[in-house]
Amino acid sequence: MAVSFITLDEAAAMNEGVRITFIPGIQALYAEALKNICFVKEIPIIRALHPLMGVDEKTGEDRQKRLYELTSQSSLPTMFVNDERPRNVWIEQLALAERIGSATSPALIPADFEQRVEVFGLCSVVLGEDGLVWNMRIMNDGPLGRKYGYTDAASLTAPAKIAEVTGLIDRRLEKQAEHGSRYLVGETLTAADIYWATMSMSITAVPPEIMPATEQNQGMLKFFAANSKIPIIAEVLSHRIEAHQRHILQAYCETPAVLGGDPI
Fold it and tell me: I need a surface site. Which of 119, 157, 158, 239 has the fewest CB within 10 A?
């Protein structure tokens, strides 16, 4: 499927519509998760180009300088909605999507406050600082790992933390199944399901009918598949984890994922 992208400056200059930054052909996890949230909430999105990390060889300038000028940060994705301020943190993006989504779409933030605590607690250990994705990023040295605090010591402890979060999710799914629910909280879909199903792609080998390969993401797909074979992580990757991921992504999200870039 052909996918078009506008420039970052074009996205910032618009005062109507939902614009989200992406890297063509790459399933950047937080951007992919926000795309899935918007799909569930029936929110049409306009894709904008997110600048890559590093220095432009021609100009010698930081490629993300303009993004920083616009948003005071450089993380992916940035979400622009109408003429409101940009949102760059997942919890604000989720709250905004819940507010502007279709009235007929599922409520991803429960009205019940006890369930809300459960949803945001689960999201935090997956998405937040020192959570699953954070630790996945610091397993390897590199620009992204350094951005999130890579050290040799942190890298050594990261797989155990990833396994701990995954085991927690697995136990949660087991308990929920005992009550006849396929979801992480309550009896219906919540943000916790969407975020976990998306982020768990970083520690599983996902079939092309869910995540197609592109010239840009083939290395990332291999890295994610290799993570699933790390012994301490492999031990907690149960059939429940896989079944939940596949059910949520295929029943509620757009699959195969639409990435743009250059398909293989």
Answer: 239
* Other CB atoms within 10 Å distance of the CB of residue 104: 6
Is cis: bond before 256, omega within 30 of 0? yes
What is the three-class DSSP state of 214?
strand
Nearest to 30 by CA among 116, 144, 157: 144
Q: What is the pLDDT of residues 177-190, one digit of tens each?
A: 999 999 999 999 99
What's the pLDDT band for 1 if we cut at 50, 70, 90? low
Amino acid at 172: R
Q: Which neighbouring-strand residues pair with 46? A: 19
Find the length of the chain: 264
Helices and strands, counts by H and E, the chain:
12, 3
User: Are 18 and 46 in contact, with CB atoms under 8 Å apart?
Assistant: yes
**CATH number for the 8-100 domain, one of 2.40.160.20, 3.40.50.10490, 3.40.50.300, 3.40.30.10?**
3.40.30.10
Instruction: Extract the runs of DSSP E, i.e. beta strands, from the chain.
Output: 18-22, 46-49, 79-81
CATH topology of domain 113-252: Glutathione S-transferase Yfyf (Class Pi); Chain A, domain 2 (1.20.1050)
Question: What is the rounded CA–CA span in Å between residue 45 and residue 91?
Answer: 18
Evaluate whether 243 touches 51 at the Cβ level (below 8 Å).
no
Angle formed at CA 30 by CA 189 and CA 250, multiple of 5 degrees: 40
